[in-house]
Batch of 4 targets.
Target 1
Amino acid sequence: MAAYIIRRLLLLIPVLLGVTILVFTLTRISGDPGAAYITERMTDEQIAQIYDEYHLNEPIMTQYFYWLNGILHGDWGLSKSDGDRPVLVSIADYFPATFELTMVSMAIGVFIGIFVGTAISVRKDKLADHGARSISLIGVSIPIFWLALLLLYVFYLQLGWFPPGGEVSDKYILQGVPDYTGMVMIDAMIALDWQLTVDAAWHLVLPAVTLAFGTIAVILRIMRSSMLEVLNQDYVKAARAKGVPESVVIKKHARRNAMIPTTTIIGLTFGALLAGAVLTESIFRWPGIGRWSADAILSLDWNSIMGFTLLVAIIYCLTNLFVDILYAYLDPRIKLE
Amino acid sequence: MPKTVTKAKGPSTGPNVKPIKTAERIKRSLKPRMSELRTSLKLIVKNPLALIGLIILMSILVVAFAAPFLAPAGNSQDPYIIPRDYESPKPPGVPGHPLGTGKYGADMYYGIVWGARLSILVAVYVVFCSALIGIVIGAFSGFIGGKVDEVIMRITDVFLSIPGLILSMAIVAVLSRNIENIMLSLIVVWWPPYARLVRGQVLSVKESTYVEAARAVGVRKNRILFKHILPNSMAPMLVSITMDLGAVVLVAAALSYIGFGVPSGYAEWGKMVSDGQSYFLSTIYYNGEAMNPWWMVTFPGLAILLFVMGFALFGDALRDILDPRERR
């Protein structure tokens, strides 16, 4: 197992190097990379000095290695749209909020997807099956920004059940919110401030549901089809013939095995969640990396956009690696070569 | 043994057999295809979801093609710019504006109709170009194999390791913002999955007996690839392409919603949602009556949903139809 993990991590290196080449190419297409460091009052000498300092007069390959060296040593440039803070500082600041949001969405999506997917697979072609499949069809077809706006319209404007956005209510921000992990709900729990915990959870509902909708749709579909496949297999028939109670057949014999293909999909949906976070966070004013990158886009802040792209690629690759390992763990038949 | 060989050659080359006329030959070669098509159509009509998908698609296509008649463009040079009256938004049902008006008094009906045309254009262009690139690269990679294949697959890995929306965001960010660059960025994102799909198919078809037979009788490599392997690798591509026609529009709409691409007031559904968003949670007054302008966001969003859903339904049905186990 350890050898497999190490081998997979090593295989990740060429892919990530490829990603850096891709991102570097994009930064050089975007225009003169020196422009970011030059201000109006600089003399020609100062400008030349900047070009020297950032190695912008060197051949493009050399420039790439200097750039890569910077990336590896934590120099991801300055985030123009975020008060000229270093990109990595911005990421460290905004990432926890996104992590909290995506994890909650993932939990909602996986839980509902697996539960409903199992439930409808034993009611194939009944009303519940058609209903759930229609909802899942809408889930994969609906523009996430539109869903967010519709939810806001119904649950904020018409019913007034949920707040329009933000992480916590304004009064708590004025009081000061505890900051241990950067995830407000977790921090509030650590500080044993239950009112704040409830308030944070209340703010989390709409963005998390928005983001989870697509995940529910995808997982429900795959869960249903793999359950249908498993339920047709001989060992399930054997279990039934033996007189094992139906609920045990479903939960113990069928669902466990149907979970295996679903696990792979969970890794893939994580990419969709991160992409969806850009839209969801901007609409719900959620202070995560998604909103930071959306702001960066609007103010043409290349360093932040590329930093975000690079970060997402790394997270996405690691998640899929993790899922592959989990997959091998869940299904002992798969030999890790 | 030699006798049977001459016999097998006989009918087409023998002097006393009448040459078949071209028309007849075409008819004969089409016959099995026509019957296949009929089976497919029967399967579509039998499946209610497929039928719904087909109806949605047909309606969108009709609207897209008939846009100049359904919503005649004004005298502006670009028909995709929605005509405005620069008044405050009006609700649906107002004379001349069946779906109401939006930001700067842009007519929603006009935007939806021309948006359909633009969406079809974007979807077909992006999917066609990426499928072409994907087929060429994937077929090449799978057919040649070896080191070339390895390198090409690692390149697709790189593209696939960044979620599509985020990669195309990064690409459009460095280019100037217009609909052409949105399409370009989507092509860059969309070809790798096609390449992998085609490669996988080619790899499996390459091993089949009929390809081996063709190779054994000395058919040229090119001909084997184009005549025997590729046509038999296309079924899953067809399903993917159909579904992606919708998915492309979903991502393109998200990109224009964030603020890439088209300027405000353009007949692009994603942009129309973002144009309406600033009014969405507010109150406007029309003829002294307070109301919430729900229509500005609802209609274009609904249009995107229907468009994507139509292709998803039809693609799903196509998968079943093309599956040999489901036929006959």
Target 2
Amino acid sequence: MNYKSRITLDIVFKVVFKATGYLVLALLGGIFAMLIYNSISFFLDVKPFDFFTGMEWAPTAKNPKYGMLPLILSTTLVTFGAMLIAIPLGIGTASYIAIYAKPRVKNILKPTIEMLAAIPSVVIGFLGIVVLSPGIADLADLPNGLNALNGAILLAVMALPTIITVAEDAIHAVPNAYKEASYGVGANRWQTLRKVIIPAAAPGVITAIMLGVGRAIGETMTVLMVTGNAALMPTGMFDSVKTMTATIAIEMGEVPYQTTHYYALYAIATVLFFMTLFANIVGEFFINRFRKYHAV
Amino acid sequence: MQFKTNRLSSVIEWGSLLLSTAIVCFFIAVIIWEIFSKGFSVLSWEFTTMVPKEGMTSGGILTPIIGTVLLTLITSAFAVPFGICCAIYLNEYAENTWVTRTIRAAIRNLSGVPSIIYGLFGLALFVQALNFGTSLLAAGLTLGLLSLPYIITTTEEALKRIPNSTREAALAVGATKFETIKDVVIPSAMSGILTGIVLTLSRAAGETAPILFTGAAFYINGSSGYVNQEFMALPYHLYMLSTQHQSIDQVRPIAYGTALVLVIVVFLLNLTAFYIRYKYRKDEN
């Protein structure tokens, strides 16, 4: 190829590469614009106050009600339950892998946990129906086990790989000198873990938890399949709940285009978007602090 | 305080870590056991090569398998070139300006956006605005958008591992910047890029939420395969068989078989990624 065409090609591809970079910005902007545009269309019909504080979600009733409080509370309940299970298990497992496990055990455990992360959410939801649901029904003497508890357990299983991997990295990244100093003043392994390593790794561990929270809030298929989907105010873990993601997934397929109900689902998606965004930003804030102190 | 540590308490303390690890392993074991033990008896050559019959209560799952394969092909045809180009821009060209930092922040945020929101965006952009209708193409592109941030991130990480001296050597013998990237940087980063692509596609193949409103169908008569028509996909098929089918108990074995095939597909893709990484590492040494 002659010199001139080589230079031209160089310039052309520079522009192409740059354009793709800017298109990513356009993608996020597009998602954001879509959410905001449709939400505004919704808020022209329904007052924001009624939407955020309404206790009843009944968009197909004769006198439709668009109160999203039951949906937010359902999502919060399921996510909270999932974290109650996943945080202790995740940090325990991460500590075990990072400090206690022999290299051979570690080499088996880490790919196994990665394998869990690879299992599609719809398969986990399916197992919730065929394994966990009859189990919960038997133990709690209910007609079926499709409730918030089922969703919380499954979301915990799905959040565990994220929490374990990120927390393990953080614990592993704590400088050895900290450990040696702790042993040097006579602390044992457990005291070193609890009083020195976990506090030093805390920002990374918080990031792990926030990423798990973000994943749990946004997860659709598992909760759609196992939480029973009754849009009522939840009162406990054995109630059937309808999360925000499940509401969108169920109702978007049935709703006529560009009706108030249609816009309402986008308004829910907007709230969902900001909830996960918040979880991720908090997570990012802590990982940056962690990096600053430990220069990972 | 006494100097001698209490034997019992240290056993309990370490035992709690061991226990939590054991519980996590137990979860994994239950998942694998349930799927493989109950799905294996359903699995046969006929099951994977026959189309669903009699309202999906008998026959195989060929149509959803074809749908998932085509869907993944469209996803990769869109997301792979786009993602690699963007990663090249970020790692090789972009200076550290506020625009670049915004692009990076956008990528991090996009990877945290729930998949159902990608579904809504696909519905608004591809199905409605661009008028593709609910189709294989619309669903594939939606999954492509979802995969994009992962491909960009993994590719950029692979590019970062190539030392600058490699680039300088190519530039010094007269290659243009594009030639350096095309002939030197990308080939040396290939293993990392491929690993990232395969792992991302294994995620995309198992996704259900983004294809709910963009083209997945309950049932397609005969084998499908047109980009402008609705399609059947493995994850959506499993969802339908386990929650929406009118005779759920009758189709349960097929649901187990579908779940097993889906898990095997995902595991095989993961093993491929693992193998690529392993092989290239060995070659480098």
Target 3
Amino acid sequence: MSAQSLEIRRSSASVWGSRSGMRTVPTVSKYIDTTTCIGCKACEAACQEWNDQESVATRQTGTYQTLPTLASQYWNLIRFNERDFDGGIIWLMRKDQCMHCDEPGCLVACPAPGAIVQYANGIVDVNPDQCIGCEYCETGCPFDVPRFHATTGKMAKCTLCVDRVSVGLEPACIKACPTGCLQFGTKDDMVAMGTRRVEQLKANGFANATLYDPKGVGGTGVVTVLAHGDHPEWYNLPADPRVPLLVKFWKSVLRPLGVVAIFGAVIGAFAHYTKFGRKEVKGPDERDTNLPDA
Amino acid sequence: MTNGWVDIKNADVILAMGGNPAENHPVGFKWFLEAKKTRNAKLIAVDPRFTRTAAVADLYAPIRPGTDIAFLNGIIRYAIEKNRYHEDYVKIHTNGPYLIGEKFSFQDGLFSGFDPAKGEYDKTAWGYQADEKSQAYGVDPTMQNPRCVFQLLKAHVDRYTPEMVERICGTPKGTFEKVAEIVTSTGNAERVGTITYALGWTQHSTGVQMIRAGATLQLLLGNVGRPGGGMNAFRGHSNIQGATDTGGNTEILPGYLKTPVGTQTNLKEYLETATPTTLNKQAWASMNYWVNYPKFMVSLLKSVWGNAATKENDFGYDWLPKTDGNYSWMYLFDDMYRGSSMRAGGKEPGPEGLVSFGMNPVGLGPNSKKMIAALSKLKWLVIAENVETETASFWKAPTEYGGPDPSKIPTEVFLLPAANFAEKDGTFTNSARWLQWKWKALDPPGQAKADQEILSRMILAVRDLYRKEGGALPDPVLNVSWSYANPVNPDLAEVLKEMSGKAVADIPDPKDKTKVLKTAGQQLDGFGQLQDDGSTLCGNWLHSGVYTEAGNNAQRRSTADPNGLGMFPNWGFSWPANRRVMYNRASADAEGKPWDPKRPGISWNGQKWVGDVPDIKPDSPPGEFGAFIMLPEGVGRLFSPVLNDGPFAEHYEAIEAPIANPLHPNVTSNPASKKFSSDKDTYGKKEDFPIVCTTYRLTEHFHYWTQHQQNGRLNEMQPGFFVEIPEGLAKEKGIANGSQVKVLSARGEIRGVAMVTKRMPELKIDGKPAWQIGFPIHWGFAGAPNHTGPLANMLTPSAMDPNTWTPEYKAFLVKVEKA
Amino acid sequence: MSAATPHRHVDVAVLAARDREDVVVGNEIVRHRRASRLIHWTVAVTFFVSLLTGMAIWAPIFRWMAAVFGGLPASRVIHPWAGVAFFLASAVMFFHWLSEMHFEPQEKGWLGPRIFQYMRYEGDDSQTGKYNGGQKLLFWSASLGALGLMVSGLLMWFPRAFPSILMQLAYILHDVTFILFTVAIVFHIYLGSAAEPGTFGAMTRGTVTRGWARLHHPRWYREVTGEEARRR
């Protein structure tokens, strides 16, 4: 999954961030226009096919949605939501997958050096060689994306088809999309396209239309056009996703403090010894010389 | 489609009705979205369900299944009342100004000329008013004469007020008026709109009239022939258009030539009946292109019998099968089931065997129990298929299908493994009429063979038997022209060449007799070169030009788009004559100037028509010929005297309907529609089955095929049969989402998972609340393990449209219970 | 033991005595019978396995610890199971020592300044029984810590079964507990070995000298021997 040729912007559990390479690479992004998505699931099939995923046992439970949530061998899922709106109903469809955050919570939470990397182009990828399957990334992710793959014991999620992108192809889901509601390009281009579409939607009566590119995680590598941008939760999107504060506290405050405390304890004990020495029995202690030594 | 897929991007308004293009035509649907994005076009979805099309539409209007004519007539009324129709267009390009004869009338739900005993109309009662002086039609160019088509239409639709539409369709008045306003915003030169439909219109006992109503509206709005306009039928399979073009129906030969009937004993009689007389020879006269019918027919006969077809033997006309009644497959199955042919008054025995290619009648036929019972009476059944379908395994259908015990079924079943679409070359003709060559992707597995090889081997074996043993009627088989390089497995490119047509003798140039247009053996450039003297052969005149001396035009893949309208003239081949928009003469005004200069179809440059391939004589100046060259009157028909159930579309209730027709309760359903009368053809009453039901397809599945996938992705995505039930009905019946329900009709009972949803709106019909439910068709008892399910058609009725004999799959009555 | 053959008869008696606690054998007192020591060391070993595998996962600076167990992935597999073992051992230890670990009224000070006083080798130990307040404090902290580590660890083992906020709290709880635990254990080891000679033997041979007992646990010494602490 990891393409060796790709340069690294950030790497998990690495003290100095382990940036590699010197080239300037534009950040890439997917573009999802939920207002022109027809929920055909071609992206789902393409993802499954390109990544050679094993089949998933599903059953009809009374919904058009393939699975309740993403799965370790199902990285791309259209989420269907129907709701009453404005005297009628709306049926929202959004392609759910890894959002490839600029500040990836998974990477922050990950304890295994190099198991989650952010390439110079912004793609966030799991490197199974390094992954230890601790599942911390699940908690770090504000979008509930990474999944533990029971067979491999590793984490799995959308790679943004880094193998395709690194050789100049678009991701499989984008390639398969029949309507063009999925696009791929530089982040700047995708944002520009999304901004135009949002303006059009606003002119057409969707006053709350937005381009979902949440700043709380530094923006995402998937920008999403939402007609009802005031209610991202209608699309199963968090309103203000951030790397959880406790995860940040844990990694950035508690962990260094803990390291200091543990070393401090060792040094403290040593210092104690140098100052107070031993607490021992004064004079020769009696011992029955008949007793054997232990 | 009169236009094409790509052309939809040129529309200002798209009315998606009687179809669910986002789900069933997702690839073509991109052009809907292109129009929305680039032109800010308005997409309106009118559907019983809030579909995935509705999800991305600008406006959704709910409608009760089977009431589309009331809705469309309501829009027509709105357009006329508010003067929102394209008057200039109607005056020159439609029969709006034409006067109708005095025999025509409409009263109490019946048009004049109805014979109640036969259940049929005498269509001569609907003729035009003859004009004594000109020996042609009476015409009132001002359209004020009360007997002119426009005034008659106005009177006919007058009953379809928004209130009446709401009462019949259940569409709230306000929503309907919004739809009408947007749709009629195209009733002018500046704007243009398209109507797209599919099986949601065709599969009704009034199916053809629904399409008629749509076409009438489009003519009235001046949207036919124009880029971004048209009446656009979305076909249900990749090559169903090609199949229809090539004689896929019992009543037509390739190229929509007519199957001869028994009374037409020689070619001359046949051609005289089939070739229409030019009715309009005045200004805007008809080219009446069908006068070339004899050329098409003789060339077709030459392609079948080659050198054996001579002028002396009527080019083998005698060898063509003639019909003596309705041989559409619904009738064949009725004959099978009864064991006698009803055409002959029950005197002849029914068929003893059936050869079935690429069709699964048990799955797709209505009233599955009857289908199975019918096949159980055959002596033999030959099926060529990719998979063991319900038809191939009908004899082991589960007991609820009511078939006889397998030990009691005499039918010997031969299942021939056939290659699928990706395992053979050939062309697909898409809904846009584009013939596109496809290349084989992989070899068929095992002993599976391409259809043409299976057929060839059958034909050659039968011919050998005739040669050896003789028998009844040997000539058609012995004389068949089978001159392929590999007669056992003809190369489909060779077949395509034959369909496109070639000269079998030198053809002189009509302009200069000393020159030769084509020498013997050369491919023709198009149907314009076909001859009725036996010097050309052509398997399908409409496809003529697909394979010329320049090569296989179906293989062209140029993305050049000279006028920017997405016509791509050098991509594949679009019948007829590589024309991308049909009736494109109507895209220009009386002077030949495009209605909208930004979206020109063709325009007159003083010498000739330029733009798309003109749908008119290329050098005929404006005003000489009418735009609708295939009709004897030369103009588009707001009033169509040829259909079997009336010249205007009229709302009739489905054969099974929850209310009596509010317009005329005594003639509630289509009086000309066809039903069957065997013991298995039962129809439910609204008192017993109060819920309206409809059936449909899903994006994730392909017909009855996906269920056979063992490890494919698609069954994961729609893992089983379900019934969509409105929230209110579910509450009433105590049905929880995901629980089991059973649905019963007069024909049977099926069970499945309840999908409780807001997307099946509760409707007020005739003032009273009414429920509707629906379910997809994609399952049956023959699927792969874990992927089988009930056959939706267990519940559908064997009632039919009187023009196409298409069953009424889309509107019938059921009741729902917790299972 | 090699040179001890002439005293074999004595060996047997001593070994037998060491299965019982709080008995005087010659000049020594049996402080921890074998069962106690086994339990303690089981806890210690499982703790260290958990500690080393866990710390390797916890912070890159301790990743070298994983080498002992064959790398990070192996550590990740071992850690939860070692944790369960540690918890179970701790539970046994808890009930094993529970009756002896109740704070007495005069020991309340150990929760505050007394512990620092103790570290300065000051204060009055004369009423110190078998376990002093610091040891009791460690017992209770370790038991509570084991519980905290287990509960939070269980959540971390099955993260999808719990809401994200609970998971985040679990990580914090696991870390805080482990850090405090480790700091305490550092001092536990330090006091039990380098700082207080004679103590380590209590957990190995199980015995302490009379002098050690008089010094650290005078009241226990009196109870065991029945004699007043002799002053030197």
Target 4
Amino acid sequence: MLEAQMEVTVDELKGLVSQRAIDGETMILNMGPQHPSTHGVLRLLLELDGETVVSCVPDIGFLHTGIEKNMEAKTYEKALVMTDRMDYLNNLGNNLCYCLAIETLVELDVPPRAQMVRVLLTELTRIASHLVWLGTHALDLAAMSVFLYTWREREILLDIFELCSGQRMMTSYFRPGGLWRDLPSGFEEAVQQFIDLFPARIEEYENLLTENPLYIDRTKGIGVISSEQALGIGLTGPNLRATGLPFDLRKTRPYSGYEQFDFEVPTASNGDTYDRYVVRMEEMRQSLRIVQQALVQLPEGPFRSDNRKFVPPPRSELGHSMEAVIHHFKLWTEGFSAPKGAVYIPVESPRGVLGCYLVGDGGPMPQRVHFRTPSFANLQALPMLAKGHLVADLVAIISSLDPILGDVDR
Amino acid sequence: MGIESKLGNLGIVTTSLEKAVGWSRTRAMWPLLSGLACCAIEMMAAQAPDYDLSRFGMELMRASPRQSDLLIVAGRVSRKMAPVLRRLYDQMPEPKWVIAMGDCCSCGGIFNNYAIVPGVDEVMPVDVYIAGCPPRPEGLIHGILTLHDKVMAEKLA
Amino acid sequence: MLDSFEFRDQFTVVLQPDAIVDACKFLRQRDFDLLIALTTADHWPEEPRFEIVYQLYSTQADVLLGLSVFLDGEEPAIPSIDAIYPNANWHEREVFDMFGIDFTGSSDLRRIIMPHDWEGHPLRKDYPLGYEEVQFTFNFDEIDRRKKYAKD
């Protein structure tokens, strides 16, 4: 296992790179798994003609965790914990996708308060994810101050997540049927504080980057793709919206109460790196709008379904109700069972369409869980986007696609 | 390292030299930029202004293993990645230290399956283990300070 | 077409393996422009063992349609659709890697997630999970002796 298997023979390369490389005319460069600009452990085999990229072959799998197989060995609710770790910047979004799949499969109701809190926290996660994207994207283009500023905002959001669930990142706050616990006191003030200060901060980032001639030179016209090509190659999310197609699952196929909110889907027309930046900046503003509306409209009520076959009873009930003890016992030892059947639930993650294909077989453990992750599909477009550009542009293109390798490899 | 270890224990000369060497090693330890998964995000958060790592001498993370002396393995180590990490470790010049940050590289974490190496100490010797999934940036700082204590206490002869 | 059913408001059509290419061509012309998922479920030990599921989505009309193909466990093979939907290529490579299903006519079928010389197909039900015994305090020393730590 430890012998380095990194040497690639010429035969293996034959199908991957052009004949010019095998003849020695162009150079094959390994942009290895450890590199300051690949966002995670992504390995690229570049065929370079001088400094220009002739072709680019991604080699993924360095972060493969076997999450899908591992989830088949755990009960439904225990497997939820693993979904946080897939796309590790969109933890609550992954939880939401998986919870919606379970709830559809077992036909479990979710109270309106839980739905609205889910939307609120998912949009905050979207803002947090875009902040990390902005910071690392600017860092790749050597605009280091933006990196330091965005992490400052992200700390405020992580404090809010910690207030709810005790954990900064891997919260597992959404459970089948609703939320894990009700919102703590101090939550609304914290979110309101964030809503008050964030618009000025977005202005700050825009002042630094949007009209900056250095930034424009490095991103305009780089990595252009048209809508038809993008849909054909499976590109979704802000990458697709930057080509002009206003496709957002929150609008076309609303879930968890998104139809109650008033927000716009930003698009741009050129499909280059600059447009992807513009779309994501505007998405942060729209997400903030949703958070504002959700905070104002938050209804009172239960935070989790009271279907005791799937949701454990509160501890106070265990003292005086035998039925509650039986439900608690069944859920804690064996877990709830799902019927035979399969569902596919797509949601909109900050990177694109995140889908959960859940197959139940009548038992307490899922028969098969598959996540159609956006970064896996988006990364497939990289060879098409990178052709003909310089290596420095390749760095900008990778960071504008926003791949998260935990999402790609699962 | 050189003539000092060959001379053996010279009493107060050696102890002062040990203190000086340990002090200088800890005050400017450069980590290698080797974030793998979620723990890497917390490592970046530790580098960010709120929990500043540069006050411990780690102003920047070097991208090249030849220029770094600390390998913070942050994230889960898959079987495909293990030879790569070993190669990075071998490319680092002495003296070098390894911090296993997070549960996945300390012991396999929540994953117990065919794809994850249960603990990066099967691949390279580890000096400090930091628990947490992911550990808070303060946890990483505590681990780094523990490493500093360990390095200060290292003997030459 | 063999069968069609609806489960939890989601429509699925069951097809024969060789009909999949024509079905995808037909649906592509009918505005199903995004192949949103391609995955497999392993129903071992029931036969037919592998169920390959395609989810096609129409962005204009918001219609999600599932196509399901059942394959036997011995030498499973199915024609590839990456000429019609280019993004099927990586999904098919992942299914090949994890389940060992051969996509005939695919432009590029290599292992994508596991190391290129890995043996076996991990997500099959008869492939072991690779579970390692957990080290508690009562069996700490015993496992400590067995576990291979790296020497420098």
